[in-house]
């Protein structure tokens, strides 16, 4: 019986190629490390970071580490190189009616990037965060060594410390990830609320009822306004009466209030947010029906939005035109996780002080009882991720609104993802993250400081 998406011969060839790439990488690292004071980072085609980044002395090209070694639909596991995009991973696994247990929202996110950062999705109420779905990973250390990290071997400490360190302890070259079984379609049901208290109570009920053996595979929400709140639940199904398409003229988030029940292919459901970057395509005029019709086939994807954004960031003239359009603004792009019991309090504060809308809601409960060192969450608690990405009119100092959010998240015992701007002082930052442990790991695995310090990398200064 065939149980793998890649046969034994092809798998052996991929493994041979992988070992050759590793040997070349080690050689390249040794050449770089002849100068002890040279720092380095990865050379790659995509990035899903929204914060400033320091340019290192040297970049190591790991773009070729993007292959899928095998998919095993019987044991529900896949072995994948770190630079493989989730777009390619989803295509490969769906051939065998499987998916990674948690798939981040955008096609360009790599599995190594999601492991080094923090990845979530609408299945996180059941399976936790991306790094909890990864069984083991091979890491390129700053001294050129490559080690295998597992929760039960000599690199156990590094296994639990690696997530949320954003490549400052090493880079994942190959990972083994857990899969789930799927069906061809997803039935989506939208529920509507006007009372935040009832909203969060209902969200809790759905998550608890379906965490272990419920029929729902996906739970998320969108808050459009103070009295306009929605929960969307998804379940895999074999047959559907119709199939919706949100890859061109139709916009997914607008459909939430237009249809009580919707049906998508499993692949289209996974990428429902990619076409319009949730709702941020408005900044690229892609929610204008004329522009969408004329240019949508070329521009409607997170990959193109990233290219445009990077072009704007590099071009001072285009940047000045953008500033003329929006005026004096502050970019507020964050995902924060708040314990459910504090979610309504955070929502009220956010609506009064920041005012961005819509807001993406994604419930999360950690999967494992053993906490990950640099992203600690109480495994007995349900958390609510608030995702908000927009510009706020401001005549305050840079970072004013982001700092308000950071302080409120800390006050409410929540977590903030570090993919975007960070304004913590060193004291604030290291009161959240274990500086003693981090310093110990840096001394053990990066004594020459060839990779950036986590705080410096996040602050971007």
Helix/strand layout:
Blueprint: H1 8-32, E1 40-43, E2 58-61, E3 68-72, E4 77-81, H2 86-94, E5 98-100, H3 111-116, H4 124-127, E6 134-140, E7 146-149, H5 156-161, E8 171-181, E9 185-193, H6 196-210, E10 218-225, E11 228-237, H7 252-255, E12 261-265, H8 266-270, H9 289-299, H10 302-314, H11 316-326, E13 329-339, H12 340-353, E14 359-364, E15 383-393, H13 400-411, E16 415-416, H14 426-432, H15 435-445, H16 454-459
Parallel strand pairs: 1-2
Antiparallel strand pairs: 3-4, 4-8, 5-8, 6-7, 6-8, 9-11, 9-12, 10-11, 10-14, 13-15, 13-16, 14-15
Write up what this structure looks like:
The protein has 461 residues and is of the alpha+beta class. It folds into two domains: 8-182, Uridine Diphospho-n-acetylenolpyruvylglucosamine Reductase, domain 3, CATH 3.30.465; 185-416, Vanillyl-alcohol Oxidase, Chain A, domain 3 (3-Layer(aba) Sandwich). It is built from 16 helices and 16 strands. The strands form three sheets. It has an eight-stranded antiparallel beta sheet with strand order 12-9-11-10-14-15-13-16. A hairpin with a 4-residue loop joins strand 3 and strand 4 (77-81). The model has no long low-confidence stretch (mean pLDDT 91).
What is this entry, summarized?
The chain is an alpha+beta fold. Helix content is 34%, strand content 23%.
State the main characteristics:
8-stranded antiparallel beta sheet; single chain; Uridine Diphospho-n-acetylenolpyruvylglucosamine Reductase, domain 3; globular; 23% strand; 461 residues; 6-stranded antiparallel beta sheet; Vanillyl-alcohol Oxidase, Chain A, domain 3; alpha+beta
């Amino acid at each position: 019986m065939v149980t793998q998406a890649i046969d034994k011969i092809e798998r052996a060839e991929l493994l041979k190629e992988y070992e050759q790439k590793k040997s070349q990488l080690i050689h390249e690292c040794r050449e770089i490390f002849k100068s002890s004071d040279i720092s380095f980072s990865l050379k790659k085609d995509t990035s899903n970071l929204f914060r400033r980044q320091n340019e290192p002395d040297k970049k190591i090209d790991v773009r070729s580490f993007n292959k899928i070694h095998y998919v095993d639909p019987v044991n529900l596991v896949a072995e994948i190189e770190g630079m493989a995009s989730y777009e390619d991973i989803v295509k490969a696994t769906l051939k065998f009616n499987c998916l990674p247990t948690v798939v981040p929202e955008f096609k360009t996110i790599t599995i190594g990037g999601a492991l080094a950062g923090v990845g979530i999705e609408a299945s996180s109420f059941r399976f936790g965060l991306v790094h909890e779905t990864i069984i083991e990973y091979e890491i390129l250390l700053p001294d050129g060594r490559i080690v295998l990290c597992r929760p039960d071997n000599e690199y156990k400490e590094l296994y639990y410390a690696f997530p949320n360190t954003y490549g400052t302890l090493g880079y994942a070259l190959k990972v083994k990830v857990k899969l789930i079984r799927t069906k061809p379609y997803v039935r989506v049901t939208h529920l509507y609320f006007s009372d935040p208290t009832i909203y969060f109570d209902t969200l809790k009920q759905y998550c608890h009822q379906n965490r272990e053996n419920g029929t729902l595979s996906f739970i998320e929400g969108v808050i459009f306004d103070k009295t306009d709140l929605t929960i969307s639940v998804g379940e895999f199904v074999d047959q559907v009466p119709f199939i919706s398409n949100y890859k061109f003229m139709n916009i997914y988030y607008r459909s939430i209030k237009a249809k009580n029940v919707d049906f998508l292919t499993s692949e289209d459901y996974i990428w429902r947010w990619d076409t319009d970057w949730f709702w941020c395509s408005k900044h690229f005029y892609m929610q204008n029906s004329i522009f969408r019709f004329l240019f949508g086939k070329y521009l409607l994807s997170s990959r193109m939005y990233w290219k445009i954004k990077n072009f704007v960031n590099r071009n001072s003239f285009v940047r000045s035109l953008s500033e003329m359009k929006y005026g004096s603004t502050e970019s507020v792009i964050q995902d924060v996780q708040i314990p459910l019991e504090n979610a309504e309090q955070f929502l009220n504060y956010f609506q009064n002080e920041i005012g961005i809308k819509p807001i993406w809601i994604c419930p999360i409960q950690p999967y494992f009882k053993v906490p990950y060192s640099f992203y600690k969450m109480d495994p007995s608690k349900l958390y609510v991720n608030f995702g908000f990405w927009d510009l706020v009119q401001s005549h305050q100092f840079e970072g004013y609104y982001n700092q308000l959010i950071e302080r409120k998240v800390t006050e409410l015992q929540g977590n903030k993802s570090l993919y975007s701007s960070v304004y913590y002082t060193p004291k604030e930052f290291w009161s959240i993250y274990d500086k003693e442990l981090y310093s110990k790991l840096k001394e053990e695995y990066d004594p020459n400081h060839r990779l950036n310090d986590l705080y410096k990398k996040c602050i971007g200064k």
